[in-house]
Amino acid sequence: MRNYYVYILASKRNGTLYTGVTNDLERRIYEHKNKLVPGFTSRYEVNKLVYFETCLEIQGAIIREKQIKGWTRKRKLALIEAANPEWKDLATEWS
């Protein structure tokens, strides 16, 4: 069985948030941190993993990602702070 992940990244500089979905969280965060995929996150240095949740099906993960993307910034911040009040980079232990 494969897991899917909905995740939120933040920039260290100005607090920009990015919400994404993947089936390999470690690989995807590595790509963000090393700017391997051109686009929003590499341009704005959004690479600090501050929140993630696991889904069992890709459809559920995509629905959840779209739901979170539709939220206000205030609601996203509340979600992050409930799970990660210190805004630690949850990927610092990964190689």
UniProtKB/TrEMBL annotation:
Write down a Pfam family by its short name: GIY-YIG
Q: Which organism is it from?
A: Chlorobaculum parvum
Q: What is this protein called?
A: GIY-YIG nuclease family protein
Similarity-based family:
Belongs to the UPF0213 family.
Question: What is the superkingdom listed in this entry's lineage?
Answer: Bacteria
Q: Which residues form the GIY-YIG domain?
A: 2-78
CDD domains, alphabetically? GIY-YIG_unchar_3 (cd10448)
What does the organism's lineage look like at the top? Bacteria, Pseudomonadati, Chlorobiota, Chlorobiia, Chlorobiales
